[in-house]
Amino acid sequence: LTCTSRSFDGPGFLYLSSNTNKFNMSYLLPHLNNGWEVDQAIVTEEDRVVVIRFGRDTDPTCMVQDEVLGKIAEKVKNFAVIYVVDIDKVKDFNEMYELYDDCATMFFYRNKHIWSTWALETTTKLTGH
Over 60: is that where the pLDDT of 78 sits? Predict the structure, then answer.
């Protein structure tokens, strides 16, 4: 699977295409290995958005997401920090955050969850929760 980025007079939009990817890209991103580490990542970061990919490192959907996140991590490091969490190893948040999908990416800012609604490029909305 590959990712390309395009710009439409504003922020870039990501498009995924389905080529075969044999490699797991999660090794490029820091892992949070227990509930305490997840809590600390969310609570202690005061200046940047905390992006956490919850899922399984071997899941095809997560592999695509990890590739995208790995490619942008350096570019966004001044305003976002990116982590991955394996939901089979760290089960503390599965029920609390309703992690029923194979892959879920959540955003936090100053210890608050940011809800995101993605539709057409003209109707993107981020709200605090």
Answer: yes
For the chain, the helix, strand and coil percentages under 3-state DSSP, each to the nearest 5: 25, 35, 45
Tell me how far apart the alpha carbons of residues 72 and 55 are, in angstroms, rounded to a whole number. Answer: 19
Q: CA–CA distance from 83 to each of 8, 37, 71, 123, 128 (Å)?
A: 28, 10, 13, 27, 20
CA dihedral angle for residue 13, residue 49, residue 82, residue 20, rounded to 10 degrees: -20
CA distance linking residue 68 with residue 63, whole number of Å: 9
Percent of the chain with pLDDT over 90: 48
Residue 39 CA to chain centroid, in angstroms?
16
The pTM is what? 0.72
**What amino acid is encoded at 81 in this protein?**
V
Over residues 119-123, the mean pLDDT reads 58
